[in-house]
Amino acid sequence: MRVLFTVYAAKTHFYNMVPLAWALRAAGHEVCVATPPELVAAVTNAGLPVVPAGDGPEPDPDHATGSDHVTSTGTWQSLTAGMTETRPEELTWDYVLGAFTVACSLHYEHMTGGRSMLDAVVEFAQRWRPDLVIWDAMTFAGPVAAQVCGAAHARFLFGLDYIARMYGDYHRLLEAQHPQRRDDPIGDWLAGRLDRFGAVYDPALQRELMTGQWTIDPTPEWMRLPLDLPYVALRYVPYNGMTVVPDWVRRRPERPRVCLTLGMTGRENLGGDLVSIGELLDAIASLDIELVATLTADQLGSYEAPDNVRVVDFVPLNEILPTCSAIIHHGGFGSLGNAMAHGVPHLIVPGRYWDEVDFGRLLDSRGAGLYLDPYRMAGDALKSKLSVEALREKLTELLADPGYLGNARQIRSELRSTPSPNDLVPVLEEFAAKHHGGASGAAGAARGRIPASPHVSEGPS
To answer: CA geometry: angle at 414 spanning 412 and 415, to 5°?
Structure first.
């Protein structure tokens, strides 16, 4: 069968998909990735075919045009402020309606590259006729293209499923409104995009267009939000991009080695880190450890790193973490997944982009790590104030108490029992045969790749 992956221009989101894409290729399936031009090099470096989709990102709705960043701090934080809300008393119809009005009209449009990416993805899908579209949960060009060409489609998560949780509230509250108050910005947005390609919007398919016919979830089951959707569990397999492993990584450290990474999201997509680099390094300079800090020259600035700190622009976490006693990170899913896969205790200083705070709390509750939230409210704005003493105390506790290591290794054992990308291939083959329909289904049957079958919308049995 033919499988089309769609993802917006964020390496971390694409890297999550690479092991599954290669598992499908190794099983003999045709795979192609459609993504904005900014990500083409990362895809080719991963050895996958790629179709450049569009002319690049639309102007950031929260900032002036001309930014070098695909997505800005303002875009992410304003989206987060809507979608990550969990307090029941706050989730009124007006609140949820406002959250999706902003998300559809600004953020989803911006993060999928606007019309140029949508046009390119749909045009390619109509010509290539994929049997299955696997789309990043923020890249709605994927389900639109699948609907237009009749392919089955599955959403690929990059962390906690806040969108589906909020959509559940949206759908429930919409049905409870008086007919005159049933504004439906999601339906209007989806209908407008489908209409561009002569496809008729069916309100009965709104849920699957927003949350997928199925959802591929690399998040451990104990971390997931309690949602009634068809999820397919997938073991997180680290992929860190094309790199050369330095010799020193393989040498056994003389002191406990701690890795510090703030991830690629801050420095590549959001225009800066959320905490002071100097504060972080000062907090651990007096400890008897070897710190490996993945920082660029721009991030380090004029700060002179202490003697026990090795500053490197990049080191693959999959290679260095087996030598580490702990990792300090921002709570991004890539850093989190790498650390869990290697059974390394975490100290999370969470960002405020999406699910970092919740990941910190969840790991703390499992005794596999600690978290230190540097944020506080100052009026209507989030302000960062990291306590140097608190961070040093947390790291000291993490290194001294063997219980954290034992619990981190227990999580690693649980992950190893989760279906691997190779295990998921026959599941996706069956799923594609069951869910494809329309033009793609007829074309797929004619090519002999998968049998034609009627469109169905229920989840797996």
So the answer is: 65
pTM (two decimals): 0.85
pLDDT tens-digit series, residues 123-161: 999 999 999 999 999 899 999 999 999 999 999 999 999
3-state secondary structure labels for all residues of 88-136: HHHCCHHHHHHHHHHHHHHHHHHHCCHHHHHHHHHHHHHHHCCCEEEEE
Both 228 and 262 in one domain: the answer is no
User: Residue 457: inside a domain, yes or no?
Assistant: no
Give the neighbor-by-neighbor strand order of the sheet with 257-261: 309-312, 290-294, 257-261, 326-329, 346-348, 369-371
Do the domain assignments include residue 240? no
CATH number, position 387: 3.40.50.2000
Nearest to 227 by CA among 154, 171, 158, 166: 166
What type of residue sits at position 3?
A: V
pLDDT digits (tens, 9 = 90+) for 305-324: 888 888 888 889 999 999 99
Angle between helices 402-416 and 333-341 (to 10 degrees): 90
